[in-house]
Each structure stands twice: as C-alpha cells, then as structure tokens.
Amino acid sequence: MGERSAGGSRTVTQPLVDTLTGFVDDLRSRGIVVGPSSLIDAGQAMSVLDLLDRESLREGLAATLLTDHTHRDTFDLCFELWFPLGSAARRAAVEVPRDENGDVDVQALREMTADVLADQEAMSDGRFDQLVAMIVGEVGQYESARGESYSVYQAMTAISPQTLIARIAAAMAGGQDTESGERPGTDPMNRRAARAATERLRDAVTTETQRRMAEIRGRDAVGEYAVPKLPEMIDFFSANPQDMAKMRRTIEPIARLLAAKLEFRRRRNHHGPVDVRATLRASMSTGGVPIDLRRRKPRPGKPELVVICDVSGSVAGFSQFTLQLVYALRQQFSHVRVFAFVDTVDEVTDFFDRGSGDEQFGERMHRMLTEASISTRDGHSDYGHMLKGFEDRYGDSLTHKSALLILGDARNNYRPTHADSLAAMRDRVRNAYWLNPERKSAWDSGDSDASRYADVVEMFECRNADQLSKVIADLLPV
To answer: How far apart, in whole angstroms, are the C-alpha atoms of residue 150 and residue 87?
Structure first.
C-alpha cells in the first residue's frame, strides 16, 4: 500500500495519490467544497493511517475533507466507490449452503443470516461482511440484457429479513424465557435491536450491490444514480419525506451564513447623510474646498418583510422550507408578516410567532393548514383570486418600508391572473420578488402563468436550498 520512510512514516504511492485526487475531484463535482489545504491534510492522514483498516481510513478522510456534517451520506457513498472493499475473498471465506441439487439453500441461508445478525461480534470479526458478500453474490445476481447484474430487491426478497425479526430478537435474548413467562425476544428492546440489525443488512446489501455494479459498469455510471445529492441540491419537487428531513437540517447553517451576509451588506450600504456643518468646518483646512465629506452617524432601520406563500400540495415542501428559513432570519427584519393561500389568502403570522423548534414548526404548519381560511373555493391554486383578495383586504399592510416575497409555482389552473392587482401591490412596497420552485424551462407550460407575473414582479428559479439561499442573500433588503 505504501513504503516506509527512514523516519517511520508511510509514503503514499502514486496509485493512492491518483485515487485520492480522483475521489476529491468527484466530491467537488457533487458540490462539496474541498480546498487545496484539505487535500494536503488528507494525503498526510493517509500516510499515517492503517490503509487496511477501512473505517479508520474513512473517518480520517472525512475529518480532513468535510466541513459540513450534512454532506456525510454523499461522502460515504463516494468513498465506497473509490475505496471499494474486495468481494472475492469475502465470498470465498464462507461456505455457501446448498441443497442436494447444488442450488443455494435459501432457507439455510436465511437461518445463517439470522444467526449472524443476532451476534454482536459479527460486525467486528468480519462475518457480517462475508455474509453480505455471499447474499449479493448468490441470490442477488441475475443476467440482464447487458450481461451480469446485481439487484438489491432480488437479494432482499430472497432473504426477507423482516420476517426474521422474531428469530433474531429471540437469539439476542439468549433463547431464555422472560421472568413474566413471555417468549424470548418479545421485549421491546430486543425487537428494536433486531429491526436495527435488518436495516443495517439492507444498507450493507445496497452498498455491496453498488460496488459490484461499479466493477461491471464503471464507477461513473453507478455514481450517477447511487450517490445521493447533497441536501441543499435536492429539488423541492422531487424530495421525499426523508429528503425533506435532511434539507431541514441545513436551515440553521444556511440561516447563520445569510444573517452574516445581510449584516455585512447593512453595514456596507448604509451611510448617513452629509453633515453640511462638519463638512464646511473640515474644508477650512483645504481653502474652503469640501474635499472630505463628513457624514452624520447612520441610523439604519431594519426593513419589514411580507411573505405570501402557496401552501397547496404541489409546492408545500418548498413553502415550508422557505418559511422556516425566513423565520430563522426574522431578527434581521423589524417585522415579518406571513400570508398563506391555496385559493384564498389569509394572514397566518400568529401561527408562527412563537417557538422555533423543527417539531413545533411542523405542528404550527398543521394548525395553519386546518384552521386558517386559505381554501374556501375548490381547493385548487388560484393566484388571481389570491392577489385580488390580498389587495382588497391587506393592501394597507404594504408600505414603502416593506419587502414583498411571493412563494409559488404560478400555476393558476387556467383562471384569471389579475396581474393588475400584483402591479398595485408592487407599487406600494420597497422591493418585490417572486420565488418559483419550478425549473425555468417549465415556466409557461400547461397552466403556468409565470411569464405574465414575471413581467410585473421579478421572478427567480429556486429549485433547491442552494439556489434559494443565494437568491435570498442577494435580494433581501437591508
């Protein structure tokens, strides 16, 4: 793996250097920022780590290359593709149970799986990895139109570990009846441990399948679908509940960064008016020529923020994420007012003014959706009715100190747009922006009225958290 220098440290060989730089380039292409100094630190770490200990190598590289813990899932999958665990030796280390015809005895393999998952030492002594290699190689392999392939679904269907939970839990309990006379393994603690073991098996089979496919199809081909996107790069429209949970964990770091940027802009942009007296007094030293302008001490005031968000099903994830981000930034504004709508607009500021926790925010969103008057017609998005209703009911809430932020995809279900109401709202405020979570290429397709609204208020594509944070950092008034 490497040669020892006279001082005892390992010199990283050229193949390892190429692998490390390729790994770092892959991370960078996926959005993870790795600077030159971090790459040098990683190389130095590899020179002292035991390269045969993959966990130590993984943790050492993560410590030197990662600055954001939310990127760990992407890092780990890239690591598996660039530093794969060899499968041939692991498959040969365990005898495959076979029936009298020479085929794999699936029932015996399932029993072996239950025994290994119940043994806490199997992870450390290598038996778990050997079992995973056997499962993928023996029951996960199939012949596709492109030749040899491996399937997670086929492997897990054959083993069906969810049906082994009771057996695994009983083995974890030692096979002894409980004091209350219940069957072994029926207690909640062992049942939870058994479920966790089956989840570890599924994750390991998935990773092993990706390794095998990378050997066959190539690292790049597998990386395109196997490596997850960074949380801030996941599209709001395609995010599942697990993705949204990852994305919400990025809100606080993004909010801290945006708050710092907004404060910097506020300090840089706000200058007090010219102090004529002080300027004339200072000009006496330059023959009465006011070369050095003196200004009064600036008294910057924080702007008001008015948010109008579409909370219909199609954009609910985007609106909820953006609302959480705005509320994390609310100290940067003198006041934040929130209005929500599906087909009718209603002020919902009171639902969000208290508390800041993620669970509390979810509860407040639920209360708002069930209690506020945001859907009084047919329950389909109606931007035109919303805009006209806002101008009539809440138009006076917009002032020259206000910044207006509209969140939605502008899909109006072929109804009147009432863009004139939007123009009247725009004329009342200091700034007005529209954030659209759809790809720009999809604007004006189908029932989208994006361009008609964009002619009145500047509209920006915000498909993911990264785009959203950049837009907010550049546009929000200070």
So the answer is: 13
Q: Is 289 helix (H, G, I), strand (E, B) or coil?
A: coil
Please tell me whether residue 309 adopts helix, strand or coil conformation.
strand
| Residues 429-445: b if buried by 16+ CB within 10 A, e if exposed | bebbbbbbbbeeeebee
In angstroms, the CA 437 to CA 444 distance is 13
Are the beta carbons of 332 and 259 closer than 8 angstroms?
yes
Q: Running along the chain, 478 residues long, what does each successive block of 10 average in pLDDT?
A: 48 80 94 93 91 88 92 92 74 76 87 88 84 88 86 91 86 63 70 90 90 87 87 86 84 82 68 76 79 70 84 85 83 85 91 63 82 87 94 91 90 93 94 92 93 94 89 74
CA angle, 326 then 329 then 331, to 5°: 130
Q: Distance between CA atoms of 129 and 203, rounded to whole angstroms?
A: 12
Which residue type, as a one-letter code, is found at position 218?
Answer: G
Q: Tally the C-alpha atoms within 13 A of residue 219's C-alpha that lie toward its C-beta.
A: 12
Cβ count near 261 (within 10 Å) = 17
Q: How far apart are CA 9 and CA 49, in angstroms?
A: 10
Within 10 A of 205 (CB to CB), how many other CB atoms are there? 25
Beta bridge partners, 433, equal 405, 458
Q: Which of 184, 53, 208 is nearest to 118 (CA)?
A: 184
